[in-house]
Amino acid sequence: MTDNLSTWWEALELLEKIYWGIAIPFTLFFFLQMLLTFFGGDIPDDAGADADVEGDGGIGFQFFTLKNMVAFFTIFSWTGIACLDSGLSNGVSIAVSLIAGLAMMFLMGLIFYYLSKANESGTLKMKNAIGVVGEVYMEVKANRGNIGKVQVKVQNSLRTLEAITDDEIDLKPGKVITVKNIANDNLLIITTNKIN
Fold first, then answer.
1. pLDDT over threshold 90, residue 119
2. pTM of the predicted model as reported, rounded to 2 decimal places
3. Label partner for 59 (CA 20 to 30 A): which of 17, 115, 162, 175?
4. What CA–CA distance (Å, rounded) separates 53 from 74?
């Protein structure tokens, strides 16, 4: 089998070798990327992603992303291989490959753009945090001395969000707090919970 593979590889022209050299790794990346997308492996663990605000339009259409580049090279290489196998010239094969790859990048960009728009209903609306009881995660200093972090349950999800306080005492981790208001559309203003 190794001899057959070696013979096959030696029989290829330079452009075919380039296409195959691109096709094999990028196809593997493409399928791995699809698996991670479907099973949630590419969702960031970043709490900052939770801090989208109600009026935020989200991320617009993105053309140059890692996913789109993987899709480009995958389609570009397989289209080139198909064109050369069909007997098209090198120049025509490259032109058709480029057009197919760019079309795939555009299609992937559209798909992810519309998926993000469809997912907007799950975006955190910061005003829903007002009145919620939570717990200090990272110390919040008195009189807006720093930006700390608190954990609150908003929209049926426990979230870690940035917070400040107007209280006269520092709020240490573990302290029970209540969200009084929102500052700058994404910063919680908290106060000590009176039962604590």
1. no
2. 0.48
3. 162
4. 36
